Amino acid sequence: MNETSHQSDPLRRARLRWRARRGLLENDLIFERFFGRYESSLSDADVGALTRLFELSDNELMDLLLERTEPDGDLAEPDIIRVLALLRSA
């Protein structure tokens, strides 16, 4: 299957931004800064990692973003850890 990459498909980029909208304002602000800095350089692996993070509850995600917790289990993968570091620096 030859799927279009995130960077070459404006619809996929818009969907990713839509999925980033959260119920907690703090998370929304972090994601807004993140996309402002890194959206144009995100790889498909980065998008996959973000998608996995978006599956978390708002509170679980906020705890990761604010370094209250660290990724563990199936979230302790290099791509997720890398994207989380970018989110934390945004």
Automatic annotation (TrEMBL):
GO terms for biological process: succinate metabolic process. It is found in: Cytoplasm. Its main location: cytoplasm. GO terms for cellular component: cytoplasm. It comes from the Bacteria. Pfam families: Sdh5. Keywords: Chaperone, Cytoplasm. InterPro entries: SDH (IPR005631), SDH_sf (IPR036714), SdhE_FAD_assembly_factor (IPR050531). Coiled coil: none annotated. PANTHER family: FAD ASSEMBLY FACTOR SDHE. Belongs to the SdhE FAD assembly factor family. This is FAD assembly factor SdhE. The lineage of its organism: Bacteria, Pseudomonadati, Pseudomonadota, Betaproteobacteria, Burkholderiales.
